[in-house]
Amino acid sequence: MNVLIVGSGGREHAIAVSVAKSGQADNIYCAPGNAGIASVAQCVDIGAMEFDRLADFAEEKSVGLTIIGMDEPLVGGVVDVFEKRGLRVFGPRKNAAVIEGSKVFSKDLMKKYGIPTAAYENFDSPEDALSYLETVKFPVVLKADGLALGKGALICNTMDEAKDAVKTLMLDKQFGDAGNRIVVEEFMTGPEVSVLCYCDGSHIKPMTSAQDHKRAKDNDEGLNTGGMGTFSPSPFYDEKIQKYCEETIYQPTMDAMKAEGRDFVGILFVGLMLTEDGPKVLEYNARFGDPEAQVVLPRMKNDILDVMNACIDGALDKIDLQFEDNAAVCVILASDGYPESYEKGKVITGLENFDGKEDYYVFHAGTKLDGGRMVTNGGRVLGVTAKGGNLLEARKNAYAATEWVSFENKYMRNDIGKSIDNV
Q1: What integer is the mean pLDDT of 33-49?
Q2: Closest to 12 (Cα-Cα) out of 59, 70, 95
Q3: If you average pLDDT over residues 260-287, what whole number do you get?
Q4: How confident is the model at residue 418 (pLDDT cuts 50, 70, 90)?
Q5: Do residues 251 and 113 make contact, with C-beta atoms less than 8 angstroms apart?
Q6: Are 296 and 274 in contact, with CB atoms under 8 Å apart?
Q7: Cα dihedral 391, 394, 396, 399 sign
Q8: CB atoms < 10 A from the CB of 222, how many?
């Protein structure tokens, strides 16, 4: 079987490594891919939003399965285009990917079906939002309705900060049309946990848990980013909490989407807050998290193609989803200045140090080849992942491995997973 992966980041690199490990793929293609993905797949110069070109390529190369890694093409309806042409594709259709594409939709869905989440109100007028904010208890969270690269949630501790956030989202349009509508949400406290789930429209199977670090700087300071590192599993997410989430969040979400005529097939990312009142949904995404995929997929025992095909065929209940009894930590190596301004084109050295190292991975996010040299080509450059017998060992291994690779203006957080030291 030939496999096509759509995307160009660390998540897609992790997917490609898992597909290569499967052994079922005769040829692996990635559109558009990156310099690191090129070591396990043939990169194709087609953009993730060029749906017809992607489908043409899949037909031309007799691709048996296309895996959509990114949120934007899913929300845009790439799966619908492929299915109309009789092409096998893994990911939710447009009418189901809206669960990520619209915060307003997802919040209203949870309210309608009694799925636990933070109290909220929706607004499409900045004036109405500001009037409502005069009545709330701070802190609050303002969220852009649409896709905002994981950066569209703004925590506001005062009315002045809330006014600035409304201006940023709705007037200055920092995230474009994503801020045409906003959600004003109560601020929840507790450990955050990310749980990625395989879904076949009726059945849902959660993977091992993970925890992301969104802020750019140590101690969760600085601006929101796409993710500066992650670890798996979360020590806060035990069997009791998982059972509660399966009964009150995961399966009810599947049932709610089916009841709305939006059967969800693919990956449902459930961002949880473990509050004093129990787990509540922070957000849904319609694809693998990035960098969560970089710690969850290396720990999965199953053949990824078997699981994805079972999802498409409505046979996920026949899969015994299993994960290794260990831990993994991913530390993102970024360009200093990310997520604002940063320089590209810096030569990367030391990548060969990962060759042949079992339980160590370097997933490429923002890299390219320039005259035979590997250079930086983005804010998040590499994801260095290591396994260990437990979280402390995995963390030690991951930080040791970050020293194997160098580039000018290399930046990373030094406290990924530090919270686990006291658990």
Answers
A1: 97
A2: 70
A3: 97
A4: confident
A5: no
A6: no
A7: negative
A8: 16
What the block records as the tokens of 70 is: 């990114």
Q: Does 236 score more than 60 pLDDT?
A: yes
304-350 confidence digits (pLDDT tens):
999 999 999 999 999 999 999 999 999 999 999 999 999 999 999 99
d(CA 335, CA 341): 9
Answer whether 37's CB lies under 8 Å from 13's CB: yes
Two tokens, residue 27: 């040829």
Residue 421's pLDDT is 61
Angle in degrees, CA 100, 104, 110, rounded to 5: 80
Both structure tokens of 300: 């999965």
Contact 37, 30 (CB under 8 A): yes
Q: How many CB atoms lie within 10 A of CB 81?
A: 17
pLDDT computed for residue 229 by the predictor: 97
> Secondary structure of the chain: what % helix, strand, coil (to 5)?
35, 30, 35
Owner of token pair 């399965």 = 65
Residues near 236 by Cβ (< 8 Å), separated by ≥ 6? Answer: 191, 193, 211, 274, 423
Contact 100, 71 (CB under 8 A): yes
pLDDT tens digit sequence for 164-177: 999 999 999 988 99
Classified as helix, coil or strand, 319 is: coil
DSSP annotation string for 13-50: HHHHHHHHHHS--SEEEEEE--TTGGGTSEE----TT-
Q: Are 103 and 42 in contact (CB under 8 A)?
A: no
Q: How far apart are CA 154 and CA 166, in angstroms?
A: 9
Tens-digit pLDDT profile for residues 83-139: 999 999 999 999 999 999 999 999 999 999 999 999 999 999 999 999 999 999 999
SS (H, E, C) 375-405: EECCCEEEEEEEEECCHHHHHHHHHHHHCCC
Q: Looking at the whole model, is its pTM more than 0.90?
A: yes
Q: Which residues contact 416 (CB under 8 A, 6 or more apart)?
A: 213, 228, 229, 230, 231, 329, 330, 331, 395, 398
Separation between Cα atoms, residue 353 and residue 357, nearest integer Å: 8
Nearest to 6 by CA among 379, 367, 288, 283: 288
Residue 422, pLDDT score = 53
CB 321 within 8 A of CB 226: no
CB count in 10 Å sphere of residue 371: 5
